[in-house]
Amino acid sequence: MRMIPRVQYVNYRREFPQAYKCWTKWFAVNRFWFGKIVQVHVRHHCIVLDFRRDWTQDMITGRP
Fold it and tell me: Domain limits at 47?
């Protein structure tokens, strides 16, 4: 059974205004932690989808 992911939004231009030339890619998708964390980047905007049920238990056991 799939669970609803925790969703976070980050606007890197607002967080780091001095680094305005860093975002050269228009679109990128990155996966971390055995595919349980998905980051979708569109220029300086980022949406993070976290599919981990209990992140502390995942850090202790190291299993997906």
Answer: 6-61
- Read off the amino acid at residue 22: C
Residues 6+ apart with CB under 8 A from 35: 51, 64
Q: Assess if residue 1 is contained within a domain.
A: no
Number of domains in the chain: 1
pTM, to two decimals: 0.73
Backbone angles phi, psi at 47, to 5 degrees: -115, 125
The pLDDT profile of the chain, 64 residues, written as one tens digit per residue, is 467 888 999 998 898 888 877 777 889 999 988 888 999 999 889 999 998 877 677 677 766 5
